[in-house]
Known about the structure:
Blueprint: H1 16-22, H2 34-41, E1 43-44, E2 53-54, H3 61-69, E3 75-80, H4 86-100, E4 105-109, H5 112-129, E5 146-147, E6 150-153, E7 156-162, H6 166-171, E8 176-180, H7 201-206, E9 217-222, H8 231-238, E10 242-247, E11 254-256, E12 260-261, E13 264-265, E14 267-268, H9 275-278, E15 283-285, E16 292-293, H10 295-304, E17 307-310, E18 319-324, H11 336-346, H12 350-359, H13 374-379, E19 391-392, E20 398-406, E21 411-419, E22 425-433, H14 448-458, E23 462-464, E24 469-470, E25 472-478, H15 483-490, E26 499-501, E27 504-506, E28 512-519, E29 526-529, H16 532-537, E30 544-547, H17 548-561, E31 575-576, H18 582-588, E32 591-595, E33 601-605, H19 611-626, H20 633-642
Parallel strand pairs: 3-9, 3-18, 4-7, 4-8, 8-9, 19-23, 20-25, 22-31, 25-28, 28-30
Antiparallel strand pairs: 1-2, 5-6, 6-7, 10-11, 10-17, 12-13, 14-15, 15-16, 20-21, 21-22, 23-24, 26-27, 29-30, 32-33
Helix pairs in contact: 11-12, 17-19, 18-19
The structure holds zinc ion (ZN).
Amino acid sequence: MSAAPTLLIPGFPWPPPVLGEFREIFRVRPKVPLSEWSESNIVLSPEYSNSTGPLMLFGWQRAIFDAITDPSIETVVIMSSTQVVKSLALMCAIAYWICEDPGPILLVEPKKDAARDFSKRRLMPLTRDCTVLHGRISDSVHDGHNTIQSKDFPGGNLLIVSAHTPVDLAQHTIRYLVCDEVDKYDDDVGGSVERQGEGDPIDLAWERAMTFGSRRKRVLACSPTVAGQSRIGKAFALSDQRRPWVPCPRCGAMQVLKFRDRDGYHVKWDSSLARELQAATARYYCVRCDRPWTEQERWSAANHQVEWRQDKPGADPKIAGFWVNHMYVPPTWKTCASIANQFLTAKDDRQSLKTFINTVLAEEWVEEGVAPDKEILYARREGYAFGDTAVVPQRGLFLTAACDVQENPPRLEVEVKAWGRGRENWSMGYWILQAFAENGQELPVSARELWDALDELLYRDWAHESGRTLSILAICIDTGRNPKPVYEFARRPGHHQLHYGPQGIKIIAHRTVVPVKGTADMLRIISGVSKEDAARKRQGVRIVSIGTNCVKAEVFDLLRHARPTVDGSPSPGCFHFPLYEMVYFEGLTCEVKIVKSNGDVVYEKRGPRNEPVDLAVYNRGAAAIVGIDRMNEEHWRRFEKAVEPVGGPPVPPPAPAPAPAAPAPRAAAPPITILPGGRGGFRRD
Ligand SMILES: [Zn+2]
């Protein structure tokens, strides 16, 4: 029963009984734009909205809604702050299509959880509270035509899938494609450590809409992420780039409301006051006359006077792009003062600042993914104890390690790191492990002795400034060129492996051994885990892929911007280094970021050795696996409690440990030497 809205029926209008009979077959009602339809039919539910009852759109929201039902537009791109328009527009569009212009709809969410969540927390309340949907979708989830993620309705069906499942994306013919949170999708759907996947999930799904020709429609929505990598940013760049302009109540100058731009801050506050008093003085200032607006004036302009203007009027007219930020919401939701307060809270921590810029300002984050000068890093080294006599500083709360397997000469390079709140971290030692036969010949990386030496490092108790000790929580080992000995090491009795459950990966024991592999993923630190069937061939060892491009961008950005403080107070994101030799810093800074013409980012090695970069990347991966990006106050408190200074006089620093002891020679094993014999600092022979 596909809709034919402009069908001319001879003799129309028919007398009432006939019309009644055919009403559901021939839809002759003129179409109303989505904004008008939504305000007449949508009732907001408490499950997803603060204000409940009939929907009232903000003035600026109408143009976005109406683009969705505009027959001349095929793709609508919404790049906005969180919680200002995206989900509402998607829900209203779906409801409209179900009632007014039915056809097969595919809604893609980044993950399976999100797909279920959308169905349960948004769609089910919507069908319950909007009478227009009654009788069209059953709210029962087990009536044969409906499950949580699949709903039939007269003339079509709605399927809610995760972007991770290629089969769901490519199986069905669709007319409407709704892609939510697109920056969280995989680059290569269904791809894994072992094999290439089926390509971009949006392209994959959109191909299924070909049969509907010009009647197909898609909506892409997300807040932006990192410039050059953000999928919504790229989609917006291809659109006509509409931005909401409003007039100044003082001078009439039209402008886009921005927190700051190239000319400086447009939300300003009195920075001479104490920090906690500053934000309350924040106001928006006109870009031309520089006079402040009241909150009421800002909201009145945003609600009633928005004029959407295209930044790129020559773009493909079938692609409409909309951008909007938190400066366009009512003062009851957010004021300039609360935005300024969020900024002041976030500004000293690169990670928080990034989140603020993406989700509040709806702007892409420009990562300065260029390594800083080695001299600068060398000059800021600190005098804490490291290597075999390492003492973890008080703010270091858990330990990770990273290991790289290298040939020529055969060796393992290992770095141990302490991590604290705000991802502040301390390099605690860097070891190059080599093993030699009696005749002085190097033993290959498969030699058990090398791995015994790694085991010795892994099982150490590490002195902490509090007088207590810490053990390493997780070690990431690169499986790159020489995977076999890594698998064997991971399977050694007593070594723990990651726990894999429905919630993802989890550390359940100290000294968890994680074989890893680098991928080019630019968006995620942990970009995948090898499949169970592939792992079976390796006797159950699974490989975690680490998005090296993503981590490098973060690491280099933090190396440039987060510096140790003069008074030793916390510095979120700061990398602390002990008195390593220059060769370490040469290795850490030897890669150059190259942005290719298609926007792809690659890192090129400009020095002989880059192991320190790889180990920084894998240690960051280990911290992510431990869960540093999800830890809350309670987690941190628990870590801090574990290193509360022990009572009594301060504990003297532990006596310098002897050189890492060679494991007791076993029968037939050649005697070995472990380098370096000294302090366990960085050196290269
Ligand atoms: Zn003005």
